[in-house]
Each structure stands twice: as C-alpha cells, then as structure tokens.
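Field reference: sequence -> structure
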Amino acid sequence: MRALLLPLLMAGCAGAAPMPDGGARAPRMAEVAGYTGTFLPTGELAVHRTATPFRMDEGAEAKRAANALCGGKVASGDRDNFIDDFWVFPGGCA
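Structure field:
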C-alpha cells in the first residue's frame, strides 16, 4: 500500500496521478486551520499537519483533524495508519 499511496499523496500537490485502471483522476484537497487533507480517488483520506509533521503517536490529533476535514465524522477503524508524515484513514469520511 505504501508504494501506491505515496505517489498519490505527492500528486495531490502536483496535479493528476495515473491510476491503475489507466485513468487520471486528481486527488481532492481540503484545508482546516493547521491541517491539509487529501481525499484520494480510492476513498482514503490522508491528513497532514502544516506546521510540524505528524508523528506516529499523534493518531488522536490526526483523527480530530480528519473529523474537521470531513465536516463531521471520519470513518476511523483498525486500518488507520501512519505513513511518513501523514495519517491515513482508509475509510474516508463517514
């Protein structure tokens, strides 16, 4: 998953990313005070803190930011994970 996710996260800043089915769909970006969210074409939500990058032990803060980015509730679960400076919520918004 990591090999597929990182190019998509980087593409959120640079434009459309080629998808496995051959199409090119751009990730959608959102911002709330201090955080950026990338809504990936595959449904995941990747959250990044703009000031200081997240650490692995900051999942609760990332979840609060994801809730704000979703405008309500993120679909959080046991598959949430930390990849580099991003907290990734595979379920996206609830």
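Note: Residues 12 and 59 are 21 Å apart (CA to CA).
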